[in-house]
Protein: cysteine desulfurase
Organism: Marinobacterium sediminicola
Amino acid sequence: MSQNDPKRWRRDFPLLSMHVHGQPLVYLDNAATTQKPRPVIDAVNRFYKTANANVHRGSHALSMQATAAFELAREKVARWLGIDDSATLIWTRGTTEAINLVAQSWGRQHLQRGDLILLMQSAHHANIVPWQMLAAATGAHIEIIPLQADGDIDLNAYHRLLEQRPVLVALAHVSNALGTIYPVETLCREAKSAGATVLVDGAQALPHFDVSLEAMGCDFYAFSGHKVFGPTGIGALWGRRELLEAMPPWQGGGEMIEHVSFDSTRYAGLPFKFEAGTPDISGAIGLAAAIDYLGSQDRQAMEAYEQSLLKHALEGCRQIAGFRPVASGSQRVSLLSFELDGFHQQDVAHWLDRQGIAVRAGHHCAMPLMQSLGLPGTLRASFAFYNTFQEAEQLAQALEQLVQSQKSILPVAKLEQTSY
Ligand code: PMP
């Protein structure tokens, strides 16, 4: 078995050997959250068994040990993202909190009535709602960067919008609903030349490939640990030092101060200014274990394998009458968003679930995108490196069976659709 054999990767993930409804689990909901390899589970377990104490404030051995592990985790994640200055990596609960931090702190400081915020048509709600809240508070307004029919960004429209000199451009690195990879380096460069500050939502990129943030050219980058094989409840915001230093804290409390009196408070420096209260210590340590795990693998081989999985799944599904993929752009992660004509997505997802196949159905927290596509939602099968060709075939077979069963039960009439 080679180093890059998916069967070997698979064995590192205990949950994947589960059965659901009496069937072996086929987990194709990786864009929602990924499964955790044993080293992550062990690291969290070990922390609570041998090192649990609060961080940054203890004068005893255990607290110092916990602090060292927690800060080492920050260093590791920073290095993984190509960041030299680990103090510019702020722990958050995930992508959502990271974007809210920027909107509440940087946004309230920099946006004024009449200023323009650009959002993407395919944005996740986490990269829409915080900006709407900011716009409502400041009088700024929002415009949308449209997509082409294949899911790629409409560059001409983007260039035209940049001529209006937006103050903030909020991009996605990869669409969670379509799987499209956007050319963020180019988009960032162009937005910066137009004088904008740029935030990139990296939640769906890092599970599939490594990035180098210093090289990317953005000002802020947000991601979630649970989508990169780490624990839930931990994620991070990276920001340029000069921006972070000039930003006010957005939450107050312990940990984020240097001195407090009833008259005034002097805040701590980076990164602690943005980390009020006890952080998710075990989460950070678990995330570092996930990064170590990924670092010990050949990520390019993983990526190439995921692309072959996507191709295989597409080839199988294309044979099915009524199968319609929703995006067709050339740069995509291993995520298949599709419709099955004549079936409501929730019914299909329910059918697949009965076969042990976990997919997501619905709007994928991208309601404005679905509205622009004229769809109530899609089915989404999202693959990770631990999925197999056999699982991709099982998906296609289960869909084919559903289509066939509809034909045999109801030869003329269409299956009545459930309305949700
Ligand atoms: N952005 C994108 C592109 C996502 O896919 C997700 C998670 N579905 C989020 C933001 C929000 O991530 P979280 O819920 O972990 O904060």
